[in-house]
Amino acid sequence: MSEDSSSSEETNTPTTSISQDTFVTETTTTSAFNIPPEAPPSSSSSNVHLAIQSLSSIVTTVSPSLLSQDQDPAFFLLHNPDISSQVSSLLHLPDSGAGDNNLCRWFYDTFQSSEPNLQLVVLRFLPIIAGLYLSRIVLKKPLAGFEAILLALYAHETTSRAGQAITVSVPDLSYPSIYHESKEPPKDINSAELNLAVISPSLEPHGTVRSTRRARIVGVALELYYSKIYLMPVGSKIDFCKFCKVWSGQDGDICQDGEFEDDQENLELQDDQENLEFQDDQENVGKESVHMEGRIGLPWELLQPVLRILGHCLLGPNKDKKLIAAASAACRSLYSRSLHDINPQAILATRSLLRLSKMALDPNNNVDHTEIPVSNVISL
Amino acid sequence: MVGSQSADSSEHEDQPSSREVWANGICMKTSEVEAKLDEGNIQEAESSLREGLSLNFEEARALLGRLEYQRGNVEAALHVFDGIDLQAAIQRLQPSLSEKQQSRKGRSRGDSQHAVSQHAASLVLEAIYLKAKSLQKLGRLNDAAHECKRVLDAVEKIFHQGIPDVQVDNRLQDTVSQAVELLPELWKQAGCYHEAMSAYRRALLSQWNLNDDSCSRIQKGFAVFLLHSGVEAGPPSLAAQVDGSYVPKHNLEEAILLLMILVRKFNLGKIAWDPSVLEHLTFALSLCGQTSVLAKELEQIMPGCSGRKKAALNLLRKSLHKHEQPDDLIALLLAAKICSEDSHLAAEGMGYAQRAMSNAQGRNEHLKGVAIRMLGLCSGKQAKVSPSDFERSRLQSEALKSLDAAITFEKKNPDLLFELGVLYAEQRNLNTALRYAKQFIDATGGSLLKGWRLLALILSAQHRFSEAEVVIGAALDETAKWEQGPLLRLKAKLKTSQSLPMEAIETYRYFLALVQAQRKSFGSLRSVSQAEDDRVNEYEVWHGLADLYYRLSHWKDMEVCLGKARELKQYSAEVIHTEGVMLQGRGQVDEAMSAYINALLVDPSFVPCKILIGAMLSKRDSNALPAARSILSDALRIEPTNRMAWHYLGIIHRVDGRIADAVDCFQASCMLEESDPIENFSSIL
User: Which UniProt keywords are present, listed alphabetically (chain B) (predicted)?
Assistant: First the structure.
């Protein structure tokens, strides 16, 4: 059945599928990088080699000499701020999402090389790609290049999950668990009526982006991003937070609930700087008015992975001040948006995140319990 | 806990102004020792302690280390601790203590020795622990973690069967608890997330005799880490799994389990209330859409998402009572939203929306547009059940006015475009409706099925069938196979209204094959985002086919299809109605009548049956005319745009000789026919 459907997927949506097809055929004919997924690990250094060589023809801050360094070149690509800022500027160009865009093709080929470290480099830029893509839909710009990358990520996740849904069975505390005992005699846990929730439904293969599946495809790409998020540089996460704000179409700062006023004041300064920087970015790259113009529909299939990523940015183990400021700004905007949509589930989740990030800033909640009691009497 | 010879916490209250050290019942001021330490002379400091308090080398070193640590000289403390051979000390402790464990029964003899050994263990473990803390403060997190781990390894070696509950030395237990808590923190800070995961599990799954507070802190820390670190922990080791107990499959499940345990501990009064636990649980359960579990746990909930809207609304009514928080804007909006979905609650919803409007001030002003929108939606719903024409048109125009006003506040909200489109379409202002439907599709990039369906319905109402078909075709291209059901149904109906029965049957056949394939290939976990239930889909195929065969007067086929439809949906007014239509078509008038009446018993507001009963009665004899007229008026009250009702009402007026009324009715019927969609507009909502 799935074979069947994927082949018929190809024959739809004239505009996207044609450009998509040409895109794919171009890559197969021109590229030597299209190494099959089951390539032996020994080819990994040559993969990296080729990826960097082809990137150096697109991005001036990348030079092939990088390969002679001691440092792992893939790691360097992932973390070098000069490279990411140049790539980001290139992505922000008005026609960057087109099917014949070199950078998009580099992303596509690089991800298909199945080299885990290189795939991380592609994921690093997913926030910008997905952000621009969704905001540009209504502008009717060519987007086949972005779509090809997103579909590659979607296909990767579909394969690695074998299309299976991800579910959560919410525990029933009247049955014992590994972390607690129960007074009742242990019955068969399998007979217990657990609340089964679907976190991410099963995945069907998609050869093209159909408009009604767009949110799902991007959502799954974000799920993939989330699964690698602890390897992502802070800059990538900040990019993501900025786009959340854009997507929400709400300026979280003017619409305070009162409840979140305090942390707002704490972060206001930094926040403004962030905004300024962001607008600078925009001006540098051809004055595309994405800011506040990119409001998109936020169905749960997209919003849920977004919230998980924001949860990581706000409350994850790596406490980076700039990131936390960007993430709480994003959260405020999404909270405001969920009020406008009167979406109870989103209100609950975003409000909890905001409250938690506020609590995290409160010094009373940050007592170090591992410190020994300080006393002037020291005894043996 | 058993007290020990060491300083009790009560002593902390009347602390001396300068530091002093206690050992073997002797007290000594530290100023002299500190001076030596400041000169960098550890040896001399050590010997003055040994002399002054009659200590051995290790004891003196441990005391010095602690002194330096407390003075904030972590580097010096580290230096002091390095001077002790801790490994040897641990090894010395092992056999003696495990022997003691075995001869625990000979208490009177063993007790003092036992205490001494525990004391020695405590000394050594504390030294290692402080070494770890010193390393942490110096930013050498990996080394710190390794030292801290040594404390735990040592405890496991010394106490084979876990730490005994009652006999343990206070201070030893404190050190152990702190080390258990510190280790995952250290790995986390060092960026070694997998080690942190196993440290958390080790803390929670082994016997450390932790008190409720520190255990809860670790559980919460672990839950937060599971939720937000982005690192998948994998399932716990098999050793930890007890038969018949719940074992979480992945991070989210494990985090939810831990948080629920924490909430229960609070409910039992074992730990102090920590609001962040509830927020974390709220976040986690919202992600799963399992807010009803949360509601059960707390019996209070953000209403509207548990699917049990009635219960939610009742809670909201209570919280909006004038003695509670009548001005809570979010509650007002939520209540209005729930009411806007049910025409019998719409009047109540209008009240909430108006209160929300007047409360949307100051920093909440941005929600004014939302409140106005809710007022519009509730008015529109209320119009449908209003008893008089006058009232209805007043409410309808109010609804339009509100939605138009709302869009000036919420320019970027495409939902409003859709709602305006439906409202105009229902009032048969088709050109305006068409404009909004197109805008909605543009604004959403065609990503929502309902937009395509609205556009096709409006075009069909304008009798622009081929254009409607083009729209459906485009929508089918933008839709994954499994979600094409509603579109295929529309396509078949479009074919039917164009008198293309063979093509309609072909569409239905494809639709049916799709539904059946879908049922085979998916379990219960398939995507339900925009799709409908399979059974509903299949029912629609058979019912649509029955209707088609009726038009072709293929009674046998019609009967088969109806039978299939009935299997899927018993006691449906719609099926019984179609059955009646079939009987009437075959000339079995009385049976048809009783079918219609049965259908009305199932659903008293089922309009098509009312119309057919009215029509049949009007043909019978003049005595039945008043009854026919009243039932048709009733049908028009429910559905004022039903052209058939107007048509038969016109016939009754004509028979009764009220020609002018008859003309009005026929005219209404005619006008409505020109703007009749193939499916009711409200079927999209």
Answer: TPR repeat
